[in-house]
């Protein structure tokens, strides 16, 4: 006797609602940029995967869950129907989290829709999340104190000078304890307001706003935005314009960026009949930082028409932007020098639909919330021309996005 399938319904919404204001306090899920994207809540199914086959294991689990569903989709677009929210670990030896929400609300290109799993459509209510104004924080060092992290950066530079490796990305963490459990919803809203050009994400307590799109797969077209090379903004438009020009000419930053772009382009070439890699990066301006950026695009080969997001992720991650070059050597150095668990920081985060299309960024500018504690992460690309003190200052600036989002009401 066949098991009864669970109904899934997708239908248009007659109004455009503020996505982040729909999220309830339990298990909020988000992938939102400039007011568009996806939010979800409620858990229909969830699991964790780990190990060298975690992307394939994630695909297998997702397909098994899809076989249990009876899908009715009157909208018929990428990201409609049931959605898998994913937050993969940086290392294969740690847990990646997969969540299929009970309710998903999406908005894209002027269209908005709702998907729910089960018999009855849920009510859509604008939620009043608590503010952060009455939170107090006790901050402390993470795995390494700042001076020790600078020493590890110097060790990485020495390895680069001896030609053991070309680039290594070293991350650090800091921790805070608060006076009550932390609600991720006001953090998401603050990040979306302050950094509208980034993707505001939340899944299983990992919350942040990433400027780096690792992978977008849409009807056979693939895009990856590479960021590497960073400089702080001053808030003075004239000075920032000059800093932007200096970043675009910086041999140290251009070298770091070249390694990251080549890593992504080589990975995508494995699947694509053609790729487009611009000759030079542009400067991406955020509220607190400027980055060298390159958008790499490609068309999936007809002979690889079966390729889905999982397959490309397996080839793309980890890129030189979050690991280094060569990848295997850099990963070993990271394990030796960082001395910490990255968890899901610097891993792929986003969503995948029933067709295998999806949109995932790299989990940067983020923190892991657990009850009354939050752990923030920041990483810096180390190359031959790096200076430890400047790398430490860069990491402090990268922490500032989340620190600011935690303080605002």
Automatic annotation (TrEMBL):
Reactions mediated catalytically: chorismate = isochorismate
GO MF annotation: an example: isochorismate synthase activity
EC numbers for this chain: 5.4.4.2
Keywords: Isomerase
Coiled coil: none
GO biological process, one term: salicylic acid biosynthetic process
Chorismate-utilising enzyme C-terminal domain residues: 148-398
Keyword Heme found: no
Enzyme class per UniProt: isomerase
Family: Belongs to the isochorismate synthase family.
Official protein name in the record: isochorismate synthase
């Amino acid at each position: 006797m066949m098991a009864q399938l669970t109904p899934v319904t997708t239908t248009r919404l007659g109004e455009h609602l503020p996505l982040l204001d729909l999220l309830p306090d339990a298990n909020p899920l988000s992938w939102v940029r400039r007011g568009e994207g996806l939010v979800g809540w409620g858990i229909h199914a969830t699991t964790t995967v780990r190990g060298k086959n975690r992307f394939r294991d994630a695909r297998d689990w997702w397909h098994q869950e899809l076989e249990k569903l009876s899908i009715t989709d009157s909208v018929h677009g990428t990201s409609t129907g049931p959605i898998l929210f994913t937050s993969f670990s940086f290392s294969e030896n740690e847990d990646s989290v997969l969540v299929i929400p009970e309710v998903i609300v999406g908005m894209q290109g002027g269209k908005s829709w709702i998907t729910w799993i089960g018999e009855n459509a849920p009510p859509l209510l604008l939620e009043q999340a608590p503010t952060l104004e009455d939170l107090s924080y006790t901050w402390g060092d993470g795995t390494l104190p700042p001076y020790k992290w600078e020493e590890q950066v110097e060790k990485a530079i020495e390895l680069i000078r001896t030609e053991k490796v070309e680039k290594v990305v070293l991350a650090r963490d800091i921790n805070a304890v608060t006076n009550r459990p932390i609600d991720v919803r006001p953090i998401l809203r603050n990040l979306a307001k302050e950094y509208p050009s980034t993707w505001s994400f939340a899944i299983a307590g990992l919350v942040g706003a990433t400027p780096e799109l690792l992978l977008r797969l849409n009807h056979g077209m693939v895009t990856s935005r590479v960021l590497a090379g960073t400089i702080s903004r001053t808030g003075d438009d004239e000075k920032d314009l000059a800093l932007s020009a200096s970043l675009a000419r910086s041999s140290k930053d251009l070298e770091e960026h070249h390694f990251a772009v080549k890593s992504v382009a080589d990975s995508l070439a494995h699947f694509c009949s053609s790729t487009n890699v611009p000759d030079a990066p542009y400067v991406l301006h955020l509220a607190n930082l400027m980055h060298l950026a390159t958008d790499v695009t490609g068309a999936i080969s007809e002979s690889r028409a079966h390729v889905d997001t999982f397959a490309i992720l397996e080839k793309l991650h980890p890129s030189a932007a979050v690991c280094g070059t060569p990848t295997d050597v850099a990963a070993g150095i990271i394990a030796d020098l960082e001395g910490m668990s990255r968890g899901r920081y610097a891993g792929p985060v986003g969503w995948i639909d029933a067709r295998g299309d999806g949109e995932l960024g790299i989990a940067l500018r983020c923190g892991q919330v657990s009850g009354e504690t939050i752990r923030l992460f920041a990483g810096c690309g180390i190359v031959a021309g790096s200076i430890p003190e400047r790398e430490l200052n860069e990491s402090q600036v990268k922490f500032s996005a989340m620190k600011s989002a935690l303080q605002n009401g």
